Amino acid sequence: MAGSKLLSVAPMMDVTDVQFRHLARLLSRHTWLYTEMVVDQTIRHNPVTDRFLWYPPEQHPIACQLGGSNPSTLREAAQIVAQYGYDEVNLNCGCPSDRVAGAGCFGAALMLQPEAVANCMAALREATDVAVTVKCRLGVDQADSYEELCNFIKIVSEGSDVRHFIIHARKCLLKGLSPHQNRTIPPLRYGWIHALIRDFPDLEFSLNGGVKTCEDVRSILDYRSPEGRGVRSVMVGRAAYDNPWNMLGKADTMIFGAESNPAANRRQVMRSLHDVHGT
Ligand SMILES: Cc1cc2nc3c(=O)[nH]c(=O)nc-3n(C[C@H](O)[C@H](O)[C@H](O)COP(=O)(O)O)c2cc1C
């Protein structure tokens, strides 16, 4: 189903820049791409926003991920983002890094303040016509029960237009674990995402975390609950840059039902990259 959002490459700082996305697009025409997180203040204070926000048109479908926690600065940043024609604006509520989480309240720390997230998302909605989505964890620190996750989803969805949550299916600890450990040590709980799908039938959920192969993506997408519902899409992070060819090279046919994949072999991809970057 070309055009559907079934698979995406996760926002990754220092990875999913415009060049990496160029490679991803050579491998898959249909996979959604995300920018690195762009902090709202960076956009507001920088006279040359092209440096963070420009992309070539073939990178559609593409989402811009914002970082921030102040509705009015997020609104201003999203007004600038809107001029670039992104297909979705996403708010980072899952990043545990000290660099981010320590600078005021944003990233995963926002999960502790669902009302504030609802206000941020309402502000983003005012600035853009495209879908506004939240990327979050299962929980943060001691706020890690399924009930607390439901409370977060309920407050954010009732207080804003958010209908789609992308969930990294593990909790995070703001202190004591490095960002890398926060992506490996807390256990993955895919079952919680299926429980959310059951408990919030009007919302959509995408699953992120630990997905390694295109075959895994296919089986997660195919899984149906007893009510006949499943995830909206799968988001892959590390597997897409550890092994872009295996993860994305056959995604168009395996995931999107396209007749062919854009790249016949790795050499062809290398040649295309050389044509763009070579001297
Ligand atoms: C190098 C790196 C940078 C990341 N930067 C971001 C980011 O900017 N925003 C975000 O929401 N998540 C970020 N993440 C988390 C990923 O988006 C994703 O949620 C996480 O890696 C789990 O997915 P995976 O197991 O498929 O890698 C980053 C992850 C990595 C490895």
Automatic annotation (TrEMBL):
FMN binds at P11, M12, M13, Q65, K135, H168, N208, G209, G210, G237, R238. Coiled coil: none annotated. It holds the Pfam family Dus. The active site is at C95 (proton donor). Residues 9-257 form the DUS-like FMN-binding domain. The keyword Flavoprotein applies. Its cofactor is FMN. It comes from the Eukaryota. GO terms for molecular function: flavin adenine dinucleotide binding; tRNA binding; tRNA dihydrouridine synthase activity. Keywords: Flavoprotein, FMN, NADP, Nucleotide-binding, Oxidoreductase, RNA-binding, tRNA processing, tRNA-binding. PANTHER family: FMN-LINKED OXIDOREDUCTASES SUPERFAMILY PROTEIN (PTHR42907). This is DUS-like FMN-binding domain-containing protein. It comes from Ostreobium quekettii.
